[in-house]
Design brief:
The protein is an all-alpha fold and about 80 residues long. It is about 70% helix and about 0% strand. Helix 1 packs antiparallel against helix 2.
């Protein structure tokens, strides 16, 4: 997945997040359903941002950015801020 594809996915996930929040505010979506999907989106966004950062770091270091792959959710979500 190249940088443009990663950024496109990030935009899609952010758009979906906003649509979920709008649906919840209108009463078209239950709280539990909203919460579950928002958690999934958060993980997917974290994975995309992690991949984008690692690709850019590899490129800056003169390495092949395509060697960076998507890390599993438990690894990405385990990072300390």
């Amino acid at each position: 997945m190249d940088e443009k594809e990663i950024l496109r996915r990030i935009d899609e996930y952010v758009g979906e997040e906003q649509r979920l929040r709008d649906r919840y505010q209108r009463g078209d979506l239950g709280r539990d359903e909203e919460h579950r999907r928002l958690e999934d989106l958060e993980v997917a966004l974290d994975q995309c941002w992690d991949l984008l950062r690692r690709r850019r770091a590899r490129l800056e270091a003169g390495e092949d950015p395509d060697d960076a792959g998507v890390r599993p959710p438990d690894e990405v979500e385990g990072y300390l801020q």
